[in-house]
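Write out this protein's structure.
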Amino acid sequence: MRHRASLPLHENTTQSIDASIRQAFILLEALDRRVLGALAPPLTTAQYHALVALDHASTQSLAALAERLLCAKANASGLIDRLSALGLVSRVADPHDARRVQLSLTPAGRGALTQATQARTQALTDALRGAHPVDDPGLRAIAGALNTLVAVLQDRATDPGVSVTALTRRRHER
């Protein structure tokens, strides 16, 4: 049996949290693929996340969407092309800047987002119900801890010295 290097408790805890988040991300991605792919129209997880990001503002630019999605403008443009072809997103010329377009959800896009969000929520509820009662205090504690973690990470990501755009650029340069 190999012995782990002796790390201070906080490093072991951080590594454990990181490993759990990565595993949960992979499993949630698989759940999303199954659930979103079964919808009409079927959506990819990236398309779903784009719809969610577009729902945060009535209109936004492609650059703003790319920043929200932490991806390159070219990737966001491809997503918008596909969502526009499905009739879920509209592109309208920006009246103040002819070089830009304003993106927004269409009524069909809002309906698809609602349907997808409900389907994802139901699938996750069903999965959790299989392991624990939905009102389980342990699950509520996990939800609280995750909310705290998200708040801490948001503070770090929005630190004046670290812009989300810079984080995106670094990620794509690797």
